[in-house]
Amino acid sequence: MKKMIMALAVLVSTLSAFAGEEKITPKVLNAFKSEFNTAKEVEWTVGHNYYKAAFVYNDKHVFAYYNQDGELLGLTRYLSPDDLPLNLFSDLKKNYCKYWITDLFEVANTEGTTYYITLENADTKIVLKASAESEWSLHEKTRKA
Question: N or C: the chain end with fewer CB closer than 10 Å?
């Protein structure tokens, strides 16, 4: 009985030691380390044909996406309104002052940088999209139940 309990305890501790560990290819790890060598609190997720690294870089939470060859597909990070380009920040204050911000993030890839913001009021939830050079445009709008 003691042997069975001991074997079960060893099995459970072995399984939990490997739980959550992801297999990241050396190409991806090397690409990440060369680009973000001062990153902290790195956590990896393996998706279908991509790898996602969630980490802290320059005191910001950043997400980097890589393909299987170690090519950086894009970056995302959460922002505060103060981090927006001035034209987008001003447009928000002028045209969307009756909403509160529930989500704001930046997407950077080979096509450029795009900003997404989710705004809500009592009745409506809207998602706006913009590049640094443009104004906000409606990406999605839903009425709350």
Answer: C
To the nearest 5 percent, what fractions of the chain are helix, strand and coil? 30, 45, 30
Which residues are 103's β-sheet partners?
118
Single out the residue of 36, 23, 34 nearest to residue 68, CA to CA.
Answer: 23
Predicted confidence (pLDDT) per residue in 92-120, tens digit: 999 999 999 999 999 999 999 999 999 99
Structural domain 79-145, CATH architecture: Roll (3.10)
Q: Are the C-beta atoms of residues 32 and 66 closer than 8 Å to each other? A: yes
CA 9 to chain centre: 37
Q: How far is CA 40 from the centre of its chain?
A: 15
- Tell me the mean pLDDT in the region 58-77: 94
Question: Where do the DSSP E strands lie in the chain?
Answer: 40-47, 50-57, 60-66, 72-78, 100-109, 112-120, 124-131, 137-143
Domain boundaries of the chain, sorted by first residue: 22-74, 79-145
pTM of the model: 0.74
Residue 94 CA to residue 96 CA, distance in Å, equals 6
